[in-house]
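Re: calcium ion structure - here you go.
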Amino acid sequence: MEANGHRILIIEDEQPIRRFLKASLSNEGYRVSEATGGEEGLRLASAQPPDLVILDLGLPDLDGQDVLMRLREWYTSPIIVLSARDQESQKIKALDSGADDFVTKPFGVGELLARMRTAMRHSHRVGAEATTIAIGNLRLDLTARLVYRNDKEVHLTPLEYKLLLTMVKHAGRVLTHKFLLQEVWGPQGTQENHYLRVFVASMRRKLEDDPARPRYILTEQGVGYRFAAE
Ligand code: CA
């Protein structure tokens, strides 16, 4: 697939990973620039803003979280963070600070490319006012606030509908518990993780063919949920 020469900035101190990423992304038609630390990354990003940033959270000079926050003061295109395994709290913090997605090391390039495409598609879709959204055998009629599964209306409560709509609008992206609670229940709801479990279980029963092996509402262990893009 040709990537139309989108410019990607990789901020990563580990040379083998940087080399691997540069080779893989160049091969896909992306134009790649590299920074080996946070300061250099910030400098390159502001000198020539890329279409997407891949940011390692473990950098030698600056904390990756600080790089992320400083970028997000002005940079609006997608940022995908790379993090080590078992760093759930780091991932959550990054997502809540404006990262679009994360990839856990070690990762396959296919997975990263898919996340990049989703993030860039999302950032280009802003402003498109759809009245219906169809995903698989589900259809949302946004004006009537109705949901259909296999063309049969599904009864959702108003809060379930709100939660579903939030997930669908960000399809393909991982959404943290905190983000979802805040979107649906407001600032008071952000401590109530159990609300989400209850609502997701109920929505899966209504929307999924096999609620025990969901196809749409996917669990991101310890982090949140992702609504499958396709
Ligand atoms: Ca690193």
